[in-house]
Specification:
Elements lengths: L1 H20 L4 H13 L3 H14 L4 H10 L1
Helix pairs in contact: 1-2, 2-3, 3-4
């Protein structure tokens, strides 16, 4: 769906800013990874999930999303 892709792309741009403005925060990194996954960027998703896992090793959602992206 092109409208969904456009919305997710816009969200991804906002999350990129959030990651820069709030380094070390789990939320923006985790959500950016999910947005990347939705856009088909599995490598980018895995990189963000790796970063999320390093911030919160017990976060089951990050581990699950990383597994789906691989």
């Amino acid at each position: 769906d092109p409208q969904l892709d456009f919305a997710v792309q816009h969200l991804l741009e906002e999350l990129e800013r959030a990651v820069v403005l709030a380094p070390g925060q789990l939320g923006p990194v985790l959500n950016r990874g999910i947005a990347r996954f939705l856009l088909g960027d599995n490598a980018g998703c895995c990189a963000d999930m790796d970063a999320a896992i390093s911030l919160a090793p017990d976060h089951a959602g990050a581990w699950a999303q990383r597994g789906m992206a691989r």
